[in-house]
Design brief:
894 residues; alpha/beta; Dna Ligase, domain 1; D-amino Acid Aminotransferase, Chain A, domain 1; Glucose Oxidase, domain 1; 4 domains; eight-stranded mixed sheet; eight-stranded parallel β-barrel; 34 strands; binds adenosine-5'-diphosphate; binds magnesium ion
């Protein structure tokens, strides 16, 4: 017999925290809290296997599910001392969805399930409060109507607004029991009108319908989109939790709230949260009432005048603080919790690992190691390498003038300047067109996720630190200012107003998510300091990784940034960019258009000093770190002029007529340049070009050695080799130049010559190529193009459809395809090492900065990965994680 239902509550539980796959995150943690003796209202979890069964059996349930649910329900009834559907003493339930990882697309929670026209009277009598009972019933109809029956919530809001207008009320709390009774009648009438059926009165029917709605929501569009964005497979399924209700809305000794065991924005080890007295469920995050701070510290920090829970309910607050410490000791990580206080008694409703900013992640990891809660390895594995990106980018220049127009809550740190947009769709459209945008909303909801993704910053005029906007922004690493109440967004006229200032779509604003300031215009930024916790964690990463981390960069400026970020060398210096400079491009074009070896050489002689100076500057910046320089790679026509003025200039410089220049460049046009006359094929046909480049490299080594006493060991890289003879010929050429420079300059010059492995044939012939090559660097951009036979520039037109239909998991240009491209790399590595056991192996494609690809590189294993400057810290951490978990991945990778 399969167990479909797992009970929890009363200090015991069938499940545990490790069972997230089966019970979902919420259910597993409710079980865990219950098992360790925390006060959790009793309930049960219907497993994710039921969800899978449901979809595999035409939306039907397993036969024995009903019996198992009834048994679990009886257990709740016994623990609570009430009966589901009993008109005198009704048990009410919450129905809560819960996937393995929290998912915004899933069905919203339904509270107070089990209420009907009869049981509401029982609740009223038992609570001694009719107003509370009717309020609970109308909330139930509203939630159930919206999320289960599909009656849009605005219908209910309209009815409520009308009721308030009729009586001249401002707040929901002013409605009396009789007023609510009337609202309930209108709600039920609305449900009948909208669905053609009366609101279901049978608690059993209510429960089954709600369970069905949770499972149904697994396949709704929002959930599907979210899964796609976060790489969550569809076959995971969701669980459903049914749990006895506790009430935070039974009076002023009741409350509900959400909290983090440490500050999720800064990582500070202080209790951080919000609560509302006499409130239920999502009232705290809904932004309808202003939530109050949990602690006096928080109240002070936010400059709030409303009393803190610490003051109002000191005893319950003390218990909650104890729970906080228990949870941290138990989970050994920062937790995000939800709680309710019913008539002075504390109940825990949820715990999960708290989302945090990258800065907070580093601080928490570093401090938890210091506190002895976790070790270095655990700390390293916990930080999402990609999130470090948030810390590497500029923050607002403290010296710059700020024209602050409003203030809100500092909901997610970082600075962002961009153009105002008012809708998520517009944000996505404009970002797609290359604009930098700030999404400005009254508040956000899960429907806005795509726009929040597209925006660099998010501004809301309503909502607190735990509002949807704040939580999602922190998770995504977007700067966010929440609840900037002075601002008014008028959607109809498309303006945002503050006092007499009017801002329109497209106007520039700046957000400082660390202070909550909203500024007019774009404010200049400065590079962040990378010290403190960042440096500590990075030093641990360096200690635990085995692969080196290099940078792909072409200029001394980039090299400087990369060295500050901890790179250990240059893995790819592309020389072609160096020729686009205004002074050089003419000589370059002359060289290309030359009709004899001699003319070509004359032009190259003009380029030589420039190129040598480039390398001198780069070598000086890199000290004695290795520098891999790729000889000219792109097809020559990329350098040729198109505009008339440029054509004239080249004609003059080269002594040709403009006609001749045009004719020559026409001749160089290729049908398929990606597979054409480029890479080492240029070196074979025009050896003078590579000769000049090699000379520039070695003369630069000599110059720097003489000037600074430091000897760079350049690694000369020959691109696009597919035939081993190509390599043999060109290596000889490089050796000859090195010898000549050595003799002329009378300095010792050490260097390596190797190749980029970027064609499938090169992978297969790696054993032969390695006879002459001292290193391989995997050029995985071209290797991906050529392995798939897929042009990177055209893939965008259809790869999206492949991803949508789940034919591929990931764009192979972003994350290395381990099965095909990876297999080619493994073959090349094995054959290369077979010939030359100490051959140096690296990667210099885009993938060198992608954590999943780095994990694959560990399995080859490579000696180093190389990536763009801002990815260097990410690669250092990802390489450490790969080394710490490498064995398991290696087994699969092979
Ligand atoms: P979400 O996944 O959106 O956080 P939850 O299932 O946690 O949804 O429910 C949202 C809120 O509903 C909770 O924070 C809590 O305030 C309220 N809630 C859920 N279950 C109960 C319950 N058994 N008793 C009282 N309130 C509950
Ligand atoms: Mg919750
Ligand atoms: Mg290439």
């Amino acid at each position: 017999m399969t167990t479909w239902v797992y009970s929890f509550g009363g200090g015991a539980a069938d499940g545990r925290a490790e069972m997230k796959e089966l019970l979902g995150g919420k259910g597993a943690n409710l079980a865990e809290m219950s098992a360790i003796g925390l006060p959790v209202p009793p309930g049960f979890t219907i497993t994710t296997e039921v969800c899978t069964y449901f979809y595999e059996h035409d939306r039907k349930y397993p036969d024995d599910l009903r019996d198992q649910m009834n048994a679990a329900l009886t257990r709740i009834e016994d623990l609570v001392g009430a009966k589901f559907g009993d008109p005198k003493n009704p048990l009410l339930l919450s129905v809560r969805s819960g996937a393995r990882a929290s998912m915004p697309g899933m069905m919203d929670t339904v509270l107070n399930l089990g209420l009907n026209d009869e049981t509401v009277e029982g609740l009223a009598r038992n609570a001694g409060d009719r107003r509370f009972a009717y309020d609970s019933y109308r909330r139930f109809i509203q939630m159930f109507g919206d999320v289960v029956l599909g009656v849009d919530h605005h219908h209910f809001e309209e009815i409520l607004e009308l009721a308030k207008e009729d009586h001249g009320y401002m707040l929901d709390t002013e409605l009396t029991a009789e007023d609510w009774a009337k609202v309930i009648e209108d709600y039920k009438a609305k449900v009948l009108a909208e669905t053609g059926e009366p609101f279901p009165q049978s608690p059993g029917d209510q429960a089954w319908a709600a369970v069905g709605a949770v499972f149904g929501s697994w396949m709704n569009q929002r959930a599907i989109t979210y899964r796609r964005l976060h790489d969550i497979p569809a076959d995971w399924g969701t669980a459903v939790n049914l749990q006895a209700m506790v009430f935070g809305n039974m009076g002023d000794d009741c409350a509900t709230g959400v909290a983090f065991t440490r500050d999720p924005a800064t990582g500070d080890n202080s209790f951080y949260g919000e609560y509302l007295v006499n409130a239920q469920g999502e009232d705290v995050v809904a932004g309808i009432r202003t939530p109050q701070n949990l602690t006096l510290h928080g109240k002070k920090m936010n400059g709030s005048k409303l009393p803190a829970m610490e003051e109002v309910m000191p005893e319950v607050f003390g218990q909650l603080n104890d729970v906080r410490l228990t949870l941290e000791q138990h989970y050994k990580d920062m937790q995000d919790i939800e709680f309710t206080v019913q008539r002075g008694t504390l109940y825990m409703l949820q715990t999960r690992t708290g989302k945090r900013t990258a800065a907070a992640a580093l601080k928490i990891a570093a401090e938890m190691v210091a506190e002895g809660l976790i070790d270095e390895k655990e700390a390293l594995l916990r930080i999402d390498p990609a999130s470090l990106d948030q810390l590497l980018h500029p923050t607002l220049d403290p010296e710059a003038e700020r024209k602050v127009i409003a203030r809100g809550l500092p909901a997610s740190p970082g600075a962002a300047s961009g153009k105002i947009v008012f809708t998520a769709d517009e944000a996505e459209a404009q970002a797609g067109a290359g604009e930098t945008v700030i999404l400005c909303r009254t508040e956000t909801s899960p429907e806005d996720i795509h726009g929040m993704h597209a925006a660099v910053g998010i501004l809301t005029t309503r909502g607190g630190m735990t509002s949807h906007a704040a939580v999602v922004a922190r998770g995504m690493g977007r700067a966010c200012v929440a609840g900037a109440g002075e601002l008014r967004i008028d959607h109809k006229s498309g303006v945002m107003r503050v006092r007499d200032l009017e801002l329109r779509e497209g106007d520039l604003i700046t957000l400082d998510g660390s202070t909550g300031e909203v500024m007019q215009g774009a404010v200049p930024t400065v590079q962040p300091e990378l010290s403190g916790d960042f440096a500590t964690v990075m030093s641990w990463a360096d200690r635990h990784r085995s692969m080196g981390v290099r940078v792909n960069c072409d200029t001394p400026q980039e090299a400087k940034v990369a060295v500050a970020f901890g790179c250990e060398g240059i893995g790819l210096c592309r020389t072609e960019h160096m020729f686009f400079d205004a002074q050089r491009i003419v000589a370059m074009r002359e060289m290309i258009l030359a009709d004899s070896g001699e003319k070509r050489r004359q032009a190259l002689d003009k380029l030589l000093p420039y190129q040598r100076d480039d390398f001198v500057a780069l070598f000086k910046e890199m000290g004695d770190r290795p520098v891999t320089i790729r000889l000219l790679d792109p097809p020559l026509h990329e350098f040729l002029p198109h505009e008339d003025a440029a054509v004239a200039e080249v004609a003059k410089a080269s002594g040709l007529s403009e006609e001749q220049v045009r004719a020559r460049s026409l001749k160089l046009v290729e049908t398929n340049p990606m597979l054409g006359h480029r890479g080492c094929r240029l070196g074979i046909t025009y050896p003078e070009i590579y000769e000049m480049q090699a000379r520039a490299i070695f003369e630069a080594v000599a110059a720097v050695a003489k000037e600074t006493g430091k000897t760079v060991v350049p690694e000369v890289m020959i691109p696009l080799v597919s035939i081993e003879q190509e390599f043999t010929v060109l290596r000889k050429l490089v050796d000859k130049v090195a010898e000549a420079v050595r003799n002329a300059e009378e300095v010792e010059i050490g260097y390596l010559v190797g190749t980029m492995i970027e064609l499938p044939r090169a992978c297969l012939r790696a054993g032969q190529i390695a006879e002459g090559a001292e290193f391989f660097s995997f050029g995985t951009n071209d290797l991906t193009q050529t392995a798939y036979g897929l042009s990177r520039d055209d893939a965008g037109n259809f790869l999206g459809a492949y991803e949508q239909r789940e034919l591929i998991e990931q764009d192979p240009f972003i994350s290395l395809d381990p099965e095909g491209v990876g297999e080619l790399m493994l073959i090349a590595a094995e054959r290369g090492r077979g010939t030359r056991p100490d051959i140096k192996l690296g990667i210099c494609g885009e993938h060198g900065g992608d954590p999943a690809s780095i994990a694959f590189c560990q399995t080859v294993p490579l000696d180093y990965v190389s990536c763009s400057p801002y990815r260097v810290p990410i690669a250092r951490l990802a390489a450490a994680q790969a080394a710490l978990t490498g064995h398991a991945i290696g087994a699969v990778g092979r």
